Amino acid sequence: MFLTCCPNVYSMVLKTQINFIDNEILLSLDLQAPFKAILKKDFLHIYQDNEPKFSLPISFPNIIHWVYNKSLIGFRINNNTYLTDQAYKLKELLSGKLFFSKIQDFYAPLQILGQGSSAKVLLVKSKIGDQYFAAKCVEKNELMYQEIEINNQLDHPAFVKIKEVFQGETSYYIIMDLLSGKNLQQLIKNQHGGLTLEQCQKIMHALLSGIEYMHSKGIIHRDIKPENIVLQKTNNLTTLKLVDFGLATYSNLKKFKYPKCGTPGYVAPEIANLTDKDTVYGPACDIFSAGSVFFKLLTGRDLFPGTGFNFVLQLNKKCHIDFSPLTLKKIPINVIVNYNKY
Ligand SMILES: Nc1ncnc2c1ncn2[C@@H]1O[C@H](COP(=O)(O)OP(=O)(O)O)[C@@H](O)[C@H]1O
Ligand SMILES: [Mg+2]
């Protein structure tokens, strides 16, 4: 009855639906006959003689293999090879959304840029276009999917962009923007007595803007420390990036997967003292860590000084802070409140 009363409304609804479906198509691929493919946001659909044959979900840990013969000529899924002259376009649209194979076809390693607790970061040169990137090499583990998924949600100057993710035999490789400056740990190392007040203000303003944005997206980093804050350019303190989302989590979970984590010396006491692993905590833990970084920048000293993981962790748990290094430096209160001009 609705249809007979309102044929125009019905045709309008139908049109909208068709448009909606068309909008989902990111790329229609001409493959070698009898195959065709359609890339949508969540799936790559392969058709044989116009009949659906196979759908690849666009998510980790799925993998697409590229067929490379001097240039990119196709892709392989489930041992079936599909040749197409749109392979570069397809690769661009899939970048960072699932695994690619054969990093050696696309990048040449040049040198080690940094090493953390779980990964090595290498300087690599792209074989297509001669550009330089950083490649984080991580041993295979499940947490890595979350590291990428969370990083992919952050679109702000304080975070690097992930370009592609490769799967090797024993490792994953995250290709990301290259940061050519030092990390804050390296920057502070040779500056006895800390940085100047102006330098500290610039760094803290850039860091806190990134943290504010990240928290507004419902994400907690959980491992903010000088090694995880890297300058994009040497001597430019305002272009810093907060890296390493290996321990990051969504803040709205009822229970965290790895609740007790972080680094002694920087971890918030509510995490260091956690006994009931069902207890959740909030984004303020990142602010505590940022405060520990701030203290180190200002004074050149650790907030919880000492050597050895357990010794520092005990001090961190008690959280008795000696503020006298700040008074010795006669640091005025406007260091903390007067950073708007940056
Ligand atoms: N995009 C990048 N460009 C240059 N150096 C980087 C980049 N990302 C990380 N690094 C360096 O590599 C180190 C280790 O990287 P990180 O992601 O923190 O690994 P981990 O998870 O093992 O701690 C960092 O402390 C930093 O100095
Ligand atoms: Mg790190």
TrEMBL record:
Alphabetical keyword list: ATP-binding, Kinase, Nucleotide-binding, Serine/threonine-protein kinase, Transferase
Residues annotated to bind ATP: 136
Residues of the Protein kinase domain: 107-342
Keyword Nucleus: no
Membrane spanning stretches: none
Listed GO biological process terms: mitotic DNA damage checkpoint signaling
UniProt record similarity statement: Belongs to the protein kinase superfamily.
Protein name in UniProt: Protein kinase domain-containing protein
Organism (species): Paramecium sonneborni
